[in-house]
């Protein structure tokens, strides 16, 4: 007879003196048994308080084996309920984990897609507006210029490659009178752009107060020595 099963028999006073002493020693170090004993003592006290005429006639001799069987069945049911709750919790955890993994996979696939160029970007302008391209046979620089008419003048997008550095450059718009109007300026690192082992191209945008109808050509020039690296007709 195990200590846990003896709780009911102890509460009903059915244990032999030796078994009672052994159970009390077990009870001192077993909080679950103490809690169950407290509950069973309340039931026993309620049964003791019944009037004799309402109380069921006691059996001539209690059957300890029957009590033990009932308590063993109760203990097995409690263990089975705890196991069932554990299985349900594990299944719920697996479902939540599956949802999290599915969401993470979906997020990864979404982030792997290249984002569309934001409205107003140089890439969006170069892909949607009217463009002109050219390559300088002397410097090897190649580029594409896009223009978009605005109320304030002309918005300009530029893509350059095969550009060696280090340099400081500017893009100018040349009007019908031959005057140059600065559109944008930038620095070129030593590695350059659009060369082996470098970023594929330099993309930027700027603007000029000139109406697009007044622009004859665009020129990429170096600052300092004023060399022309590329000329693109408007």
Give the arrangement of secondary structure elements.
Layout: H1 6-11, H2 17-27, H3 31-48, H4 64-112, H5 122-128, E1 130-135, E2 142-150, E3 153-161, E4 167-175, E5 180-188, E6 202-208, E7 215-222, E8 228-233
Antiparallel strand pairs: 1-2, 2-3, 3-6, 4-5, 4-7, 7-8
Low-confidence residue ranges: 52-64, 102-119
User: What oligomeric state do these chains adopt?
Assistant: single chain
Percentage of residues in helical conformation: 25-40%
What sort of overall outline do the alpha carbons produce when their principal axes are compared? rod-shaped
For the termini, the CA-CA separation is 101 Å
What is the number of helices? Answer: 5
Q: How large, in whole angstroms, is the Cα Rg?
A: 45 Å
Give a count of the beta strands, DSSP E runs of length 2 or more. Answer: 8
What does the average pLDDT come to?
Answer: 74
User: Strand order of the main beta sheet, please?
Assistant: 1-2-3-6
Structural class: alpha+beta
Write the element-wise H/E pattern from the N-terminal end onward. HHHHHEEEEEEEE
- What can be said about the biggest beta sheet? 4 strands, antiparallel
Which range does the strand content fall in? 25-35%
What are its keywords?
alpha+beta, four-stranded antiparallel sheet, single chain
Task: Give a brief rundown of this model.
The protein is an alpha+beta fold and 234 residues long.
């Amino acid at each position: 007879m195990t200590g846990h099963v003896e709780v009911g028999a102890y509460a009903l006073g059915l244990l032999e003196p030796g078994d009672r002493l052994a159970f009390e020693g077990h009870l001192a170090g077993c909080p679950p048994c103490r809690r169950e004993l407290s509950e069973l003592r309340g039931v026993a006290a309620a049964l003791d308080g019944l009037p004799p005429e309402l109380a069921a006639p006691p059996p001539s001799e209690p059957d300890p084996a029957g009590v033990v069987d009932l308590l063993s069945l109760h203990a097995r049911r409690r263990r089975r309920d705890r196991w069932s709750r554990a299985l349900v919790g594990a299944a719920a955890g697996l479902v939540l984990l599956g949802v999290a993994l599915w969401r993470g996979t979906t997020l990864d696939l979404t982030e792997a897609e290249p984002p569309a160029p934001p409205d107003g970007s140089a890439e969006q302008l170069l892909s949607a507006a009217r463009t002109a391209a050219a390559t300088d046979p002397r410097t090897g620089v190649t580029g594409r210029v896009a223009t978009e008419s605005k109320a304030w003048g002309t918005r300009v997008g530029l893509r350059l490659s095969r550009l060696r550095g280090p340099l400081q450059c500017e893009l100018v718009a040349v009007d019908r009178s031959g005057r140059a109007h600065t559109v944008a300026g930038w620095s070129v690192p030593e590695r350059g752009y659009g060369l082996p082992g470098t970023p594929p191209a330099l993309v930027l945008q700027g603007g000029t107060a000139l109406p697009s109808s007044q622009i004859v050509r665009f020129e990429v020039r170096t600052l300092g020595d004023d060399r022309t690296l590329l000329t693109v007709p408007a």
